[in-house]
Prior knowledge:
The strands form four sheets. This protein has a seven-stranded mixed sheet with strand order 8-7-9-6-10-11-12, with helices on both faces. Strands 16-17-21-18-19-20 form a six-stranded mixed sheet, with helices on both faces. The chain has helices at about 35-45, 60-65, 110-115, 130-145, 205-215, 230-235, 270-285, 290-300, 330-340, 355-370, 395-405, 415-425, 440-445; strands spanning about 25-30, 50-55, 70-75, 85-90, 105, 120-125, 150-155, 160-165, 170-175, 190, 225, 240-245, 245-250, 255-260, 260-265, 310-315, 320-325, 345-350, 375, 410, 430-435. It folds into three domains: about 25-105, Rossmann fold (3-Layer(aba) Sandwich), CATH 3.40.50.720; about 120-300, UDP-N-acetylmuramoyl-L-alanine:D-glutamate ligase (3-Layer(aba) Sandwich), CATH 3.40.1190; about 310-445, Alpha-Beta Complex (Protein-Tyrosine Phosphatase, Chain A), CATH 3.90.190.20. The chain is built from 13 helices and 21 strands.
Amino acid sequence: MPPSDRRTPAGGRASEQALDWSGRTLHFVGIGGAGMSGLALVARALGASVSGSDRAQSPYIERLRAAGIRPLPGHSPDNVPPGAEVVFSTAIPPENPELARGVARLHRSELLGQIMALRHSIAVTGTHGKTTTAAMIVHVMCRLGMDPPYLLGGELRLTGSNAAWGSGEWIVVEADESDRSLLALQPDIAVLTNAELDHHATYASRIELERTLSEFMAHARQHAIVWDRPQLRALCAGEAVTYDADDVRLTPDGARFRWRGHQVRLAVLGTHNAVNAAGALTACVLAGADAAAAVDAIADFSGARRRLERLGLSACGAALYDDYAHHPTEVAAAISAARSLAPRRLVAVFQPHLYSRTRALAREFGTALALADACVLLDVYPARERAEDFPGVDGRLVAAAAADAGVPTAWLPDFTDAQRYLESILRDGDLCLMMGAGDVDALGRSLAVDA
C-alpha cells in the first residue's frame, strides 16, 4: 500500500516511518526518460523495490543500472513483478501491455505528489526555463549545505544526476504543464517562469493554458512566485512574489545583473538565464537561504545538461553547442545567447519536436532561425505522435519558413547527410548550435573530435 503522505500540522517533514517505502514494489513503464528515471531513483532511495522497461536506450538507463535498477528492453506483461504498482506517464499509450498488470496504476504525477508530501516543496512550472530554474535552485541549496532532494528534467552538472533524495527540508521539482499533470501537485512554493502556448495537442488556446497555470499557482501553500510581467501576475489570484533581473549585461563568460540590491554574476550565457537566476534566487530566499550567500553560490552554476551545453570542437575547429530549445522563443533565446560568444559565423541545426507543434508554429520557427547566419533543418522528432495523424507535416515546413525569412537553409532529414554537409561547410571560428528536444545532440556529438 502507498505510504502515508501526511505532514506535520506546520507543514514540516513527515514521520520517518512515512519515509520507509520498503513495502512497495514499483514498476515504471518508459523508465528511460528524464522524469521517470528520476522518480525511479528516488523511489529506490526511499526503499522501494523498483523495476522498469523501455523500448529505447537513453543516457539515463546507465545511471539506473548504476543504482541497482535493471531496465528491461521492450514492453511485455511478464515485465511487471507480482504485487507491483505500475507507474506510467502520459506518453505511454493505453494499449501498452504492462498497464493491465499490477495491483494499481499510478500516473507519474501522482507518485511525484506522494514524494513531494514528504518534505517542504518547491515546484517550478512554465513554458520555458523549468529545468534551468529548478537546477539553479538545487545548485544554490547544495552549495549552501541544504542538501535538497530533487527531481529535474535534465542532469545537474554539479551532481551528475537528474534526481537525488537528500536529507534537507526542501524538495525541488518541475511541474509539467504539457499534459495538465501539474494540477495533481500541492507545492509549498510554486514558481511560474512564463506562459506561452507550446503543447497544441493539449491546449486549444493560450487561454486554456493560462487557466491551467492559474489553477496550479492557487495550489501554492505558502508562496506563488512569478516573473514580474502583467500577464503572469494576473494568473495569481492572491498576492504574488515577483522577480526580475535588472541591468543585465552579457559577457563571453556569462552575465551580470542586479537582483534585490545585489550584484549577481552568472557563468551561463543569455539574458533568459539571468531572469531564470532571479527566479531561482527568490525561491531560495523564501525557502530560508541567506540572500547574499545565495548570490555567491549561484556564481559557479554551469548549467544543466542540454542547456547551451558545449560538446567540443569539430575537426575544423568549429565550436559545437547543444540546446534543448523546441519552441520559437527558446530557439531565439539560444541563438542570441550563443551570439555573445562572438563567433565568426553561427550555424543553427534544428530538429522540430512533435508534428502538432511543427504544424502550428512553423512560421514562428522560421523567424527565430533567421537570427542565425545559416541553418540546417532535420525532420520532425515524433515523440508520442504518429506521422500518419499529421499528413503533409514534416521538417520542410520549417525549412521553407526559414528560407522565406532570409536565412540560407538546407533541408537534410537524414543525420548521415546532415553530418557530411556540416563537415563540408563548417570552418574554424564558426559556432554550430544544435537545437531540439529529440536526439539532435547525437548529431552534435558525432561531429565532435575534441570534447
